[in-house]
Design goal:
2 domains, about 10% strand, 15 helices, about 65% helix, two-stranded antiparallel sheet, five-stranded parallel sheet, about 450 residues, alpha/beta, rod-shaped
């Protein structure tokens, strides 16, 4: 660029000299013409022509110089632009390459992170599975250990119970056959308070009768007051409360004690005929006599008490669902009706037990030992009622008994939806219940 400007400056200076020479010559010619017109007239013309030619030459050279300068400037600009474009392209290519490398690095890092994340998730899953497996193994081992401890305890109690038993079948026994939730456990405990009524520590009679189920509620077993080793079902032991009998001599009763068992119809598969066949066979083979007490209760009260106890202990009678309950009670009532037909004996309604437990016991004692002194039997009955008062039993078994005493009739809990859903089936329960009450009233009148 500097060289171009220098050449342009040289050309312009030379042109300016020529131009000044021509102008100077013209001035000289004009001045000379004024003095010597005739002589120098021709010279003036010649000089003027030369000046004009020189001027034209100067203009041409200036224009030519400008064109050359413009061409060179344009070429220089094009060269610079090309250099800039080349440099820009190089930079762009470098940027594209760097961007491509960066994208590839980011993708690689993301892939590595995904892989790490997957490995972490896999490890977490493996750890979780191992933890669950370990928890299951620990739980299984704990369950197995608890079962082993319970079995060892049960076996030990069974051995103690059989040791405490006479090992012989009783000469006479009282079988309490009941619908569940009729106050039967209360009656059993009151009867056990009689010195001439006992529950054999062993389950021999229970087993001989081919029964299944528990002889005494687990909800009242193994509590702080449970000190009697008891075979609750064949080969399964537990501890139950002991009710000390009144320290009183019962001459006749003492010579004719009764063994006591409480059962529900489901214990013999709701099949009275088959059960009684076994009863009669046992009586014949072992010269023994079995008496029955059939305990019943208002069906709605039974269902209400059943549902309320299920709320406190959902595992109780787990095989009987809410939807199956009415049918379950229906089968129990039908079995008892059939039993009273095939084997007539005492029928006891829960209403009587609630209203006058001492009179109920006295009537039972009198039927069992007609010749025993009535005053002595009355004292035994009074002691039994006092020993099994609800307030005393509630201290050791609040879950089994509930916060309040159940109704004699109808329902006392929030079970309206249940009774509405099964209204027809519940009403059908009253047919066997009333039939049993009628038989009860007829026999009592006699």
């Amino acid at each position: 660029m500097k060289q171009f400007l220098h050449r342009l400056s040289v050309r312009v200076t030379f042109t300016q000299i020529l131009l000044l020479s021509g102008v100077g010559g013209l001035l000289v010619a004009l001045l000379g013409g004024l003095v010597i017109r005739p002589l120098v007239g021709g010279l003036i013309i010649v000089t003027l022509a030369l000046g004009l030619a020189a001027l034209a030459l100067v203009v041409f050279k200036v224009e030519h110089g400008l064109n050359v300068a413009h061409t060179e400037l344009k070429a220089h600009q094009d060269a610079q632009q090309k250099q800039l474009d080349d440099h820009r392209q190089i930079i762009q290519e470098q940027l594209i390459h760097q961007h491509s490398d960066l994208v590839q690095q980011i993708r690689q890092q993301l892939a590595e992170q995904r892989q790490i994340s997957q490995q972490y998730q896999t490890m977490q899953q493996q750890i979780s599975q191992q933890h669950q497996t370990m928890q299951q193994q620990i739980s299984q081992q704990q369950t197995a250990l608890q079962q082993a401890i319970q079995k060892e305890r049960s076996d030990r109690i069974v051995s103690f119970a059989r040791r405490d038993s006479s090992g012989r079948l009783p000469k006479q026994a009282l079988i309490l056959l009941t619908v569940p939730r009729t106050g039967s456990t209360w009656l059993v405990d009151m009867l056990r308070s009689n010195p001439a009524i006992y529950m054999d520590p062993s389950a021999r009679l229970f087993a001989e009768l081919g029964l299944t189920g528990g002889r005494y509620p687990m909800g009242l077993s193994n509590g702080p007051d449970a000190d009697m080793d008891f075979e609750n079902m064949p080969n399964q032991g537990t501890r139950i409360p002991r009710f000390e009998p009144l320290a009183l001599e019962l001459p006749v009763a003492g010579a004719n004690p009764y063994a006591l068992e409480k059962i529900h119809p489901q214990y013999f598969g709701d099949d009275p005929a088959a059960f009684l066949e076994r009863v009669e066979q046992l009586e014949a083979e072992h010269d023994m006599r079995l008496r029955f007490v059939y305990q019943i209760r208002d069906p709605r009260a039974v269902l209400s008490s059943f549902l309320n106890y299920k709320r406190r202990d959902p595992n109780w009678l787990a095989s009987v669902s809410r939807d199956d309950l009415v049918a379950y009670v229906q089968r129990a009532y039908q079995a008892i009706v059939e039993m009273t037909r095939l084997r007539p004996d005492t029928i006891l309604d829960y209403t009587e037990l609630r209203q006058s437990p001492q009179d109920v016991l006295l009537n039972l004692y009198t039927s069992m030992w007609p010749s025993e002194d009535a005053d002595l039997l009355r004292q035994v009955a009074a002691h039994a009622v006092e020993a099994t008062r609800r307030e005393k039993r509630q201290e050791t078994a609040p879950g089994f008994l509930g916060a309040t005493e159940g109704p004699v009739q109808g329902s006392a809990y929030d079970d309206d939806a249940f009774f509405e859903a099964f209204a027809a089936q519940v009403e059908a329960l009253y047919e066997p219940y009333r039939a049993l009450l009628n038989v009860h009233d007829i026999r009592r009148a006699k």
